[in-house]
């Protein structure tokens, strides 16, 4: 409509304070020069970063190869690892499969274990055969016995059957126990000899065990293999022990 007054937008009010200071010549109100932004020299920044990383690597190297740092919570009094003068560990390995196949004491132990196992199996088989024969004989001739005799024989056969049901497991447990004891004795001999050999000869920092089935390493340098030397020394020691017994 023509008589309506058009709506005017509220004009933006200027800040009087700003206007006052705009015409002021006092030093505090004078525009301050902007400080130029400092630019980082790329080469200097990279050099500083590399130095920090280098220091970190050196610290990690020292902690890792000298054993210095947080002590073990399992054995705080454990001695620090032996490090060669040149800072490189001397490592060798022994092939356990070859050692067990060539070490005469291990061969003799296995033969003794096999004989013991055969003896236990033979004992069980003989008792089982005798029980079966007695049972079959009772079936055939039991009617010729008195009632009290039949009851007594049945009770006896029942007890023997129950005994045989547990005997096989007992004999198997005996074989397993003997094998475990033999393995402990064998390992003790090997460990003792390796310690003496290492102290008197090469003085390696680490001697690893390599096996075909559960070796922790996928590859070992053949130059680190000392199996033949260990087997030769073990057999020589075993011959001396046998000679003393004779």
Q: Residue-averaged pLDDT, rounded?
A: 74
Give the amount of beta strand, in percent.
under 5%
Quaternary arrangement of the chains shown? single chain
Number of strands: 2
Strand order of the largest sheet: 1-2
Helix content: 55-70%
The low-confidence parts are: 1-40, 42-81
Task: Report what the structure shows.
There is one protein chain. The chain has a two-stranded parallel ribbon with strand order 1-2. The chain has helices at about 15-20, 40-65, 95-100, 105-140, 145-200, 225-245, and strands at about 90-95, 205-210. The model is unreliable at about 1-40 and about 40-80 (pLDDT under 50). It is built from six helices and two strands; from the N terminus they run ααβαααβα. The protein has two domains: about 40-70; about 95-245, no CATH class. The termini are far apart. About 5% of the residues are buried. The protein is elongated and about 90 Å long. α3 packs parallel to α6 (about 225-245) and α4 packs antiparallel against α5 (about 145-200).
Task: Provide the fold topology.
Elements: H1 16-22, H2 42-66, E1 91-95, H3 96-102, H4 104-141, H5 147-200, E2 206-210, H6 227-245
Parallel strand pairs: 1-2
Helix pairs in contact: 3-6, 4-5
Task: Give a summary of the structure in a few sentences.
With 246 residues, this protein is mainly alpha-helical. The chain has helices at 16-22, 42-66, 96-102, 104-141, 147-200, 227-245; strands at 91-95, 206-210.
Structural descriptors:
246 residues; mainly alpha; 2 domains; 61% helix
